[in-house]
Design a protein that fits this description.
This protein is mainly alpha-helical. The chain has 17 helices and no strands.
Amino acid sequence: MISTDTSANVIQGVLPPQDRAGRRPAWGEPRAVALVWLAVYLVGTGVILVTGGRWGLVAVHGALLVGIAGILREPRHSDVILRERSDHVILRERSDRRIGVHGKRSFAALRMTGGGGKRSFAALRMTGGDLLPLFAAPLLYGEIPALIASVGSTYHDVTIQRWELALFGSQPAHTLAARLPFLPLSELLHAGYLAYYGVIFLPPLLLLANGRRRAFAETVLALTVTCTLCWVIFVAMPVEGPRYRFNAPPDVPDGPVRRLVVGLLAAGSSRGAAFPSSHMAVSVAMAVTALRWQRRMGWAVAVIAVSIGFGAVYGGFHYGVDMIAGAGLGAVTSLGVIAAFKNGAAAE
């Protein structure tokens, strides 16, 4: 019997449907969408920084844009594999015809030997592209005060305080700790607030470490959209927050965890970036996407998100309205990403 396992048939059989040529264009995948979305933000805010004469930050934006352009010109991960597998299968197929070995069996042996240094380098470059939006976020958050100054926006704390009174009948950021002056509760809530820094990175990096690139890409897209929308609102409607407008909440227990949080905020927070709370928005977005892809992690992040919401108000770092708006924004963006790419679940 003559084998019909030509190179084309073998490749068609080993690649999943979503990776076969013509099935889904790279520009419609979450990884590319995240990079393009970030590029649009960088261009828009770069123009603002030019008008403000912030040339150092403009150079940073330019470098990030060059990096994104290079990443987007690279072939998709599946396309790299397809081309490499095609080349190797054709070579092995020619050899196998001489010795009568079945094409699929030789390809299985090829997969065991690996793709070599070229493929490893391509994978390394691709991983850098995957991580760029994730690790650019802290840098771009830090430039918010420069953007606010370049635009000339004024702070809107008075408006937020009015919303706060209308909704709660008081200023919880100034009164909640006095009503619950318990050191164990204070330390627990401040620890929850501190856990935000792990929430940003841990869920997506675990997905990437486990080789779940599709889930990782959707998670990073949700993070990118959430962060950039928060940053745009910060620039258009900056709010300092109660930490700048009020003294520390009266009778708030002063434990070591609270002192650590206060020190970190003093060193690294961006003035004018209170409404909506990006801490809350990102935490909720990470919880929603984690519940889709890694359920146990999702429930843990959801608990942390709740503690962040209460801890930020209890510690006097955010208005209650900030947290509500942040939670709503994070939920809408993450659910929107999931809905837009719901058919990608089969790829995982």
